[in-house]
Known about the structure:
With 487 residues, this protein is α/β, with parallel strands linked by helices. The protein has helices at 44-63, 66-82, 84-95, 99-119, 156-169, 184-195, 210-219, 232-245, 267-279, 296-311, 329-344, 380-383, 399-407, 422-431, 469-473; strands at 24-29, 34-40, 127-128, 135-143, 146-150, 173-177, 203-206, 225-229, 248-252, 257-261, 289-295, 348-351, 370-373, 390-396, 411-412, 414-418, 436-439, 455-456, 474-482.
Amino acid sequence: MTLIPDFVPNRIGGIEPPRGGLAAIDVVNPHDARVLAAIPRSGTAEIDAAVAAARAAQPGWAATPAVQRGEVLHRIANLIEARKDDLARIVALEAGKRLPDALGEAGAAIQCARFFAGEGQRLFGRTTTSGMALRWAMTVRRPCGVAGLIIAANTPAPNFAWKVFPALICGNGVVLKTAEDTPVSSWFLARLCEEAGLPAGVLNVVHGLGAEAGQALVEHPGVDVLSFTGSTRVGRMIAEVAGRQLKKVSLELGGKNPLVVCDDADLDNAVRWALLAAFSNAGQRCAAASRIIVFDSVFEAFAAKLVAAARGLKLGVAPDCDLGPVINARQLANMLAAIDRARAEGAEILCGGARATAPGLADGFYLQPTVISGLAPEAEMSCTELFGPITCLYRAAGFEAAVELANNTPYGLTAAIHTRDIDRALAFASRVRSGVAVINGGTHGSEPHMPFGGVKASGNGTREPGTEALDVYSDLQDVYLNAQMPR
Length: 487
Ligand code: NAD
């Protein structure tokens, strides 16, 4: 069988329904704009069926002891490991990535599965004291019921893993609405989960557009907990619905992440990390360094090195390339328009700023790595997340000004500082308002056992993955056990 069939179906209750009368959405390789496959443009009926399947399968899964659920997750991890080359090929094609990067993402999904498999042996509650004699007081984690999961397209395999595995280990049924640009890897992973022994119906995958299938899932009364990774704009709408329905919700949203370069930084190291943080994955990371704040005294030197390095980056999906295309034509057009507006506001485009049209790239959605300076902190581009290979440079007179600029954003996802001064580094970590603070590294990078998430407009305070993700996907129940004096 070919790796990617022409039609990639939903997976509902272990069945892959034929397209029937549903309209189709093309899945396009962003590297060359070729159509890879079609997915169904699902709507309310498909979401209803998926939620019903999850509701039917969930009690049996919840009744399976958590340690045994963990064993299923271990088998899933092993099967993904065995099929990681296929998974990586799918990711590379549908997301327009280098194969080594796609393999790295498959590895991240495997690590995440293994971590949550182990959580099946923990799932700790608390045993505590009681105000009454001979009474035992404890908390126990219970599944929420059905989890409705919605993910972004940027790193498809980890995005799947970060939500699906914690939801499963807690004993929930799952309905995943895939990202319309990268739906194939989610379908492939869901198949592997069932092949590894996950009972049919526990995990259901529905393709479709956000405003249709996504909205139907968010509003569905049969969904007990929602977890969403995507833009702040959509996150706010989901929070409104969840608020009305008093539904539990976890929101992992956008970022406008600052990377501060101090006068005592190792400039070459700072350039190396800034380059990776701004341009790896073509800047399509919620944690991308899109605001680089540099002390005045080293601004020119840093800017010259960064621009030279950015000009040297190789575009494409071959193993020796540095960055690939952005996810679709609409995103490319958005970014080109934003660059035009910044230019009209007086910004200086230090490098890039245009579509890449070299042979082999012209058909794809490639934007040259772009470094911009001279923008006011209040300018549109300084405040708006672009989600592409564009970064802006800002000058700061010193540490205080740099911290102020770093915090001058509606977002608060990640932040980094480059300095050799430990006092500065620690002061930055305590004063920057972000969910992640990095010293002498990039703004990106997260580990499956660590809680990731943001403050302000970057989220609603929840953290996934890590042990903290269990708080999203389980409800605490207090259990009191009353004893009597033995006769
Ligand atoms: P998006 O919000 O447009 O779409 C994300 C997902 O939401 C897609 O699956 C989409 O179909 C769905 N969706 C869209 N409208 C919906 C609606 N009305 N109801 C329900 N679902 C809907 O975001 P995008 O442009 O695809 O992704 C990029 C965004 O994701 C950026 O803002 C980025 O920072 C964010 N992101 C955040 C994290 C994080 O962990 N904080 C990680 C990756 C991406």
